[in-house]
Amino acid sequence: MPTRSDHGHHSMKLVILGRDGTLNHYRDDHVKSVEELEPLPGALEAVARLNHAGWHTVMATNQPGIGRGLLDMASLNAVHMRLNQLLAEKGGRLDAVFFCPHTPEEGCNCRKPLPGLIEQIGLRFGVDLSTVHMVGVSLRDIMTARNAGCVPHLIRSEKEGTLDETQLAAMLAQVPGTQVHASISAFAEHLVQQDRRARADARGEKLAPDTSPGEFS
User: Fold this and answer.
1) Is there a contact between 60 and 14 (Cβ–Cβ < 8 Å)?
2) Do 19 and 59 contact (CB within 8 A), yes or no?
3) 13: helix, coil or strand?
4) CA-CA distance, 97 to 71, in Å (whole number)?
5) Distance in angstroms (rounded) separating the CA atoms of residues 92 and 118
6) For helices 43-52 and 73-89, what crossing angle results, to 10°?
7) What is the pTM of this model?
8) Each residue's pLDDT tens digit, 145-169
9) What are phi and psi of 153, to 5 degrees?
10) Are 128 and 9 in contact (CB under 8 A)?
11) Nearest to 36 by CA among 46, 27, 44, 28
């Protein structure tokens, strides 16, 4: 296996993003065509914000619609090309897209919440997964992060926004250490500020505490 440079896992700052409900509006019937891809407000700008701050962004998504014959590879590729075009217009980019095409019945290891897809990303980019931040909108997403050894983040999205505090607490109790954010924009800002503080601490400087809106403990 090729080794990375002497910088070790610090050589790359990596964020793994979910797709449906994280970057675009969730559809119960799957996003089957470019026309059905609707980016969420602020999501593309959030990815660009991370990119500009030196973060590499990779998408990991379950796409059982392929296994069920609801869309083919050409359609999926077209959707992701369109997503990257829209990101480019905002100054952002995805380094790669990893997807599981299988239905739950196929028993693969790459369907989230199993860690196979994330482990593939770790191998491809040569990163220590314990340094990788993974963000999504569902219990499945944060369980995937935990199972792969990543840092779990949950967005209070349109999909999970209907959860009351008791339901949210029950979800978070299953994946201790999950950080919760009001939006993907709040997540991006949190990560950028956290990184900035870490660099300042390394230089022996002190920054004012982060007061980004929409943070939950």
Assistant:
1) no
2) yes
3) strand
4) 17
5) 21
6) 70
7) 0.88
8) 999 999 999 998 766 557 788 988 9
9) -130, 140
10) yes
11) 27
